[in-house]
Each structure stands twice: as C-alpha cells, then as structure tokens.
Design a protein that fits this description.
single chain; 518 residues; nine-stranded antiparallel sheet; 12 helices
Length: 518
C-alpha cells in the first residue's frame, strides 16, 4: 500500500467513524426518547387511575348518602366521645375479630352540636368501607382513602387510632378539604392539591379529591392521598438510562425527581425554578425529538391529568461521550487493520462486526424462546432470593391443526399473530411472554397473587373466546387452553414443566379452560 492509498484509507476510516458516531448518537437519542415517552405514559396512567378511583368512590358515596335516612344504624352506634374537647371516634370497637389494619375508622370533632345528629351520614360514610378497601389494596402508592364531611368528621382507610390522630377543626383549612368546598370549587370538579406533609406521618404527599353532593346539598369531599416516594421510585425504576427526570405541579413544586436533586430530602418541598433555569422551564411540549438547550437534550410533556409537567433531561456531553466510547473500538480496529495491510500487504482484511442476537419471534414480534429463558432466569433467581412466588403459564391454541387444514396456513399465521394483540390488551407492560413454537406460548408474571392470576387469565381466555378475526372472506374464532403454575420450585424448567402438565389437563378436560397446578 503506497502513501497515497494509506492517506485515503485513513481519511475513509475517519469518515466512517464519524458516520458510526452519529448513528450511535441517533440510536441512543431514539431509545431515550422512547424511554421518556414510556415514563410519561406510566405517570399518566397512575394519575388517570387515581382520578378514576376518586370518581368510583364518589359514585359509591352518592349512592350511600341518598339512602342514608333509611339505613339501619350499625357501626355508627359504637362511636363515642374520647375527650372533653368535643372529639369522638369509632376506633374499631365494633368487631374485635377483624385486625385493626383491615378496619376503617371514623374520627371527628364537634363542640357545639352533638355528633349524634349526623349518625345517619356517619353510617352511610362507614358503608364506604368495602369500596375504600378495594381502591387502597389495588394501589400500593396510596397512603389514605377517605371521606371528609362538612360536619367535622372523617372516615378513612387504612385504620388509624384516635390515639395517633385527633381530628381538629384546623384540618378544614387544609387544601385536601378546602379545594372541594362550594366557595372554592363551585363546579364540583376533581382537584389536585399542592404538596403537603401528612398529618399522620406518612411523609410528603398530594391529594386527588372530588366534592360530594347529594340532591344538590354539599356534604364533603372524597379524597385519595398519594405518597411522593412512590412517584420517585417510578421515575428511577423506569429510567433505563439513569438520566435526569422530574415532575412538577402548577405551583412549581417538585412532585417527583430522579437524579435532579442531590441528597433529596422528602421532608422538604422543592421549587423547580430554584433547580432548573428558566430557558428549560419555558420550553413547550416536545414532539418526536428532544430540544437542545444549554448542552442538554430536553423532553417535556404536560400530563393529561392534574396539569403536571414531566421533564426528561439528557446531558449532551455524556451522550456524546458514550457515542465516542462505542465508536472508539471501531476506529482503533480499522486503524489496526490498515496497519496490518500496510505492513504485510497481502494480509486478509479482518471483519469482526458484532451481530446482534435476534430476540424476537419472526412472525409475531414476541420474544423468542431463547430470549425468554434469558430474562425469565434472571426473574427466577431474583424471586428465589426474595422468596417471592411467580406465575408460569403455558398456553396452547385449541384445534390449531384444524384451523390450518380448514383455512390454510396463512390464516393460521394470522391466528398466531392475534395472540400478541390480546396479550397486549390485558397484560401489564412489564409482564414477560414468548412464543415457544407453533401454537404454544409461555408467560411469566411476578408481583401478583394467585387469585389475581386466575382472574386475569380467565379474562384473557374470555377475550380469545369472544374475539373474531376477519380476513378476506373468512371470519375466524378460536379458543385457547391455559396451564398455570403458581409458586416457586428449584428450577425454572420444572415450573414450566408443571405449567405444561396443567395445560395438558386443560386440553384433555375439554379445552377452552384454565387449569391451576395443584
């Protein structure tokens, strides 16, 4: 290789590395933008669920309050005074067989009028207990679910004793009540409070609430309290790139943050304008790409509920450094290859391009069997360390051979591809599932109870049963059979085997059913 060719080779090497550098940079930006959107969607879902829960509890409250005059007084008869200052409480004394942490409590204050005047309203509020329990137990990030009456009492879940919390008139000046009053909220809209410190000691939180009216009479508010620690964990848990992210409200209070505030102290309320410059805060919502400001790439989105803003910030220098680190081995390798050609002239050109393993099933876009085992093994080891139970589910399409024989393999392929759509409609975004081959699928779910697994897959089974696939002139319906193993064995393979045995029982028992490994 002469000097001219050597210079050309070096020039082309630099040019190629620049292209690779830019491509790595583009790929990282695309992945981070996708991650930021996913976090924003997850946060919107949490807020949407809180709003729906408040609306649900509000409907239950209206129903109970409308018939309050007809209700038999039960738990309300156990309410008693607890001091000489007008305070009274239920304190869970009506049924000692129920653990306190699974009870509701009523706490109140009235120094001028006997609380017995409102016993029927109190009984109606206490009848909200099953609704409050349902909402609280399906949302781990809720601190309290309660009804706050204009008649100076509150009914709340989970249980807190009057020894630990005494209802005071000053509570009616707090935003979780005040923002629902007719004077402040004449249109009776759902409201989000600014941040405040919980009076019972669960830390910094915000409240989602809604005024409760019965026959145009304002009675009080329905509230759900959300702790900020859970929102912080959501940001850090979903940010796969460990960048900077923050949510703040209309009052510019930091609702949740990840890598934004050093030595974050959740006993303090932080102001976003004290943390980030105005140039970043004044950016409007970004679409399809990041906005570059002050050596940072910024993603910003106004969430659909509560008018919260979500910011996701990537340090440009860190991103470029990563791209450089990714590109550097390629650059050095190309230089080394040129050097070998220059020294030995006839040496073979080395090609050590890394091939990414294909992790998806070619037909459905689901994970393939190999990738499933790679991820599932890690989840299994984690569950074993923490002694948590897992759900392993095997699923077969019933009479799939008949579908192929009757309609042809093209329709059979469509039937297989439809599985992913139904899974996506019913499963959580982090649940693991894969096509094992043919019409056989395997799923692994963690952080879920046995009862919820059975309910979920009964719902999925029904979705398959009711689903109609229209393709050309063909309308196709088919059913599926499930085998479920719930628990923890010595190996993932054995758990899959037991689930497969259960699926086989579903097949032999008539198909279109769920069998739980016993």
């Amino acid at each position: 290789m002469d000097n001219k060719r050597f210079v050309i080779a070096i020039f082309l090497t630099i040019l190629v590395c620049m292209v690779v550098f830019l491509e790595f940079d583009r790929m990282q930006m695309k992945a981070m933008y996708k991650n930021a959107n996913a976090i924003a969607s997850n946060l919107e879902n949490k807020l949407q669920n809180a709003v729906k829960d408040v609306e649900f509890l509000h409907l239950a409250g209206v129903y109970e309050m409308q018939k309050r005059k007809l209700l038999p007084l039960q738990s309300a008869l156990f309410i008693k005074k607890i001091d000489n200052n007008g305070s009274y409480a239920l304190d869970g004394c009506d049924d000692a067989s129920i653990p306190l942490n699974d009870k509701i409590n009523l706490l109140g204050y009235n120094n001028s009028v006997s609380y017995t005047k409102y016993l029927y309203e109190m009984q109606a509020a206490l009848n909200l207990e099953p609704y409050m329990k349902l909402i609280y137990k399906k949302n781990k990030h809720y601190a309290w679910v309660y009804y706050f009456s204009k008649h100076h009492f509150t009914v709340l879940f989970p249980y807190v004793s009057s020894k630990n919390f005494n209802f005071k008139p000053s509570l009616e000046q707090e935003n979780f009540y005040l923002l629902g009053t007719p004077k402040v909220n004449p249109d009776a809209k759902i409201f989000f409070t600014p941040l405040y410190m919980d009076k019972i000691g669960k830390g910094l939180m915000l409240t989602v609430g809604m005024p409760l009216y019965c026959q145009k009479e304002y009675l009080g508010v329905i509230d759900v309290d959300i702790t900020l620690n859970n929102l912080d964990n959501t940001l850090s848990g979903l940010d796969y790139f460990n960048n900077h992210s923050v949510i703040y409200n209309q009052q510019h209070q930091v609702v949740a943050s990840n890598n934004i505030i050093k030595n974050l102290d959740r006993s303090k309320i932080y102001k976003i304008d004290k943390i980030l410059p105005d140039d970043i805060l004044h950016i409007s919502n970004t679409y399809k790409s990041f906005k570059y400001v002050h050596s940072k790439y910024v993603f910003i989105k106004t969430l659909s509920y509560g008018n919260f803003k979500f910011l996701y910030i990537v340090n440009a220098y860190t991103l470029w450094l990563k791209s450089f680190i990714y590109t550097l081995p390629i650059f050095l390798f190309m230089l080394f290859s040129i050097y070998l050609v220059y020294v030995y002239k006839k040496s073979k050109k080395l090609n050590q391009k890394l091939q990414l393993q294909n992790v998806e099933d070619y037909m459905t876009g689901m994970y393939n069997r190999r990738y499933f085992f790679k991820v599932a093994e890690a989840l299994f080891l984690k569950a074993k360390r923490k002694n948590n139970k897992l759900a392993v589910i095997m699923m077969d399409i019933d009479d799939f051979k008949n579908i192929n024989d009757t309609y042809g393999h093209d329709v059979g392929d469509i039937a297989i591809m439809e599985v992913k759509n139904i899974f996506n409609e019913n499963l959580r975004h982090y649940d693991l599932y894969a096509r094992f081959g043919g019409e056989e699928f395997c799923l692994l779910l963690d952080d879920i109870s046995k009862e919820d697994v059975i309910k979920l897959f009964e719902k999925i089974r029904k979705s398959f049963e009711d689903n109609i696939i229209k393709t050309g002139r063909v309308e196709l319906k088919y059913t599926v059979s499930f085998g479920i193993f719930y628990g923890l064995l010595d190996s993932l393979e054995n758990m899959i085997k037991e689930a497969d045995k259960a699926a086989y029982k579903s097949k032999t028992a008539g198909k279109n059913r769920i069998t739980l490994y016993e």
